[in-house]
């Protein structure tokens, strides 16, 4: 199973996200500090 984590480059908050959350963060920014997010802020890991 693949897990995706978002880490904000501004506030360093890390959260596990699903596909819908990933798209929302890319559109709206970090849910904590609203900093712009890029695809590089997401890391997928296999469990």
UniProtKB/TrEMBL annotation:
Protein name, please?
Zinc ribbon domain-containing protein
> InterPro entries this protein is in?
DUF7560
Q: Which domain of life is it from?
A: Archaea
The taxonomic lineage of its organism, from the top, reads:
Archaea, Methanobacteriati, Methanobacteriota, Stenosarchaea group, Halobacteria
**Pfam families from the UniProt entry:** DUF7560
């Amino acid at each position: 199973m693949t897990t995706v984590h978002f880490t904000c480059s501004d506030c360093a908050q890390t959260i596990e996200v699903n596909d819908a959350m990933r798209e929302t963060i890319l559109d709206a920014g970090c849910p904590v500090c609203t900093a712009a997010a890029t695809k590089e802020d997401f890391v997928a890991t296999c469990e």
